[in-house]
Amino acid sequence: MKKQIEQLTSWLQQQVNDAGLDGLVVGVSGGIDSAVVAHLIKRAFPDNSLGVIMPCKSNPDDEKYARMVVESADLQNIKVDLSASHDSLFHAVKNEVSALKDWQEDKEKLADGNLRARLRMSTLYTIATNYRYLVVGTDNADEWYTGYFTKFGDGGVDLVPLIHFTKGEVRELAKELGVPNEIIEKPPSAGLWEGQTDENEMGTTYDMIDKYLKGEEIPAKDKEIIDRMHKVTAHKREMPKSPPAF
């Protein structure tokens, strides 16, 4: 893992140099993936890296863990509370669609959560423009393969350094980097709504996805879930489609 960390650090430095920019920014959620990236960007650019904590009607514990992350990485950080912005935009959209009698209540939770992710993306890019930084994503191999990310939300980034690392390997990186054990051990959650956890929402576990990606045998029901997620989220891993030149 030490060698992997050195290679990732050099790669991050090279990407910024190639882009002719000055540094790196990441959204810090308090989860293990963003914690690993926070530590990596601090290593890559000790004086030109920034963590952004973006509560959005979030559980206060999320900010507590995010603070723990930036302190452990000694990472410069700022907080931008998006709760009011989210309320304003979400209710404006809901009111207009409801006036057409087209609002789908069963889609509200997902639309709400995805808007939070996309507001965070917009916030990061606004900050990145100010500092001349690249936006670093936190998706790991499991999330990328299953499409467990919001299109143009947490998937809307410039760099994805963890995309070849399974969740288990991210944990090993975290230990090597000095991420607090409390962060490493807590259940993964995107923090999109109260009580949300990744594994409950997916219907399978990261351990099962790790084994699947490594070519190991897993129960048929888990394989079916993973295959279905990969298939229906193919569009998230592609550039926008265009017609041929007629």
Largest sheet, spatial ordering of strands: 3-2-1-4
Q: Helix share of residues?
A: 40-55%
Mean pLDDT: 95
Sheet/helix structural class:
alpha/beta
Q: Per DSSP, what share of the residues sits in E-state strands of 2 or more residues? A: 5-15%
Number of helices: 11
Task: Give a count of the beta strands, DSSP E runs of length 2 or more.
Answer: 4
The global form is globular
- Taking all Cα atoms into account, the compactness measure Rg is 18 Å
Span between N and C termini?
50 Å
Major β-sheet annotation: 4 strands, parallel
> Which spans have pLDDT < 50 for at least 5 consecutive residues?
none
In N-to-C order, the SSE pattern is: HEHEHEHHEHHHHHH
Brief description of this entry?
The protein is an alpha/beta fold. The chain is built from 11 helices and 4 strands. The model has no long low-confidence stretch (mean pLDDT about 95).
Tell me what the structure shows.
With 246 residues, the chain is of the alpha/beta class. Helix 1 (2-19) packs across helix 2, helix 2 (32-44) runs parallel beside helix 3 and helix 2 packs across helix 7. It has a four-stranded parallel β-sheet, with helices on both faces. Strand 1 (23-27), helix 2 (32-44) and strand 2 (49-53) form a beta-alpha-beta unit. It contains eleven helices and four strands, in the order αβαβαβααβαααααα. The protein has helices at 2-19, 32-44, 60-73, 83-99, 108-131, 141-146, 167-177, 181-185, 198-202, 206-213, 220-232, and strands at 23-27, 49-53, 77-79, 133-135. 54% of the residues lie in helices and 7% in strands.
